[in-house]
Amino acid sequence: MKATLKDISDKTGLSISTVSRILRGESKTSSKNVELTIKAAQEINYPLNSRVLNGKYDYKQRLQVALVTSFYPDEFYSTFFYGFNSATKGFNINLSLYTFNPAEGSLGEFLTELSHNSIDAAVLFLPTLQEQDYRNMLDSIPKDFSLISAAPLFNPVLDTITFDSYRGGYIVAKHFYEKGYHDVGIITGPTNKNESLLRKNGFTDYISQKSDMNLTWIFEGDYTFDAGKNAYEEYSALHKKPRAVFASNDYMCLGFLEQATKDGLKIPQQIAIAGYDDLPICNYVHPSITSVHTNYEILGQKTFNILKEKMKSESNHSGVLSIIPVTLSIRSST
Fold this sequence. Notes:
334 residues; alpha/beta; 434 Repressor (Amino-terminal Domain); Rossmann fold; six-stranded mixed beta sheet; 12 helices; 42% helix
């Protein structure tokens, strides 16, 4: 049965109207009554608006933050959530994972429902959404509900924090060149994804600076394991094969690697390959995979810093983009 104001009134001995004013942040009653009311509400799971309570009464509760994504049960999302959850230490934050499905309603409705159920702020990682989706969402959610995005757009609407995808592609190309792999190829991600184009641009820009380095093959993938397998089938039919290949995420790298090893290719002696994301599995396959390292705990820490500042200032979104550096974890595949 849903908790009501009367239930809180019965537990505290305060009138329903007093309880209602306290929870709306409109009461001038004693701090003792405020604490009593909030405690009773928590005990019966009555939904509290922590933003209001903190603003009016200096109400000390752990910040409730939702990490909203289109979750899939795979290693990437597990690594992503683990890094963000680890980042909550020292921030007085409780982090909850929520899955948003566009087929089941609008993002605005989804976030409004969260805001009515004791969630104070949200971090969005929704790479499939486009600019207009975010604009529609901002028009319909409570104005005091704080948001930040961890998924870059070509033209960001929300303030966004993400990894330096351009640098990721650049340092892979640089690594290939320094290893003596001058004829190279790339398996890109989808062309409609901002980070996919940045990874490709970083990779190709480095190559363009070297007169003795050549991009000899491009395959457009979709970040899936099967795309990596399909890329290998095209690669194997090439007359002039690249000496090294950059797969724009680890799943495509793993698909390519599996097919190459089944074909009996020696890696990296015959073909070197590198990925992106540095998932834990990169350490556990043979050969181990060189990959661009993205530290999700650091991403989470920077995200929470910005989010808490936004909650204090209640500033509007201006599409500010903050970038987290990446590094390269070099292993046996190159």
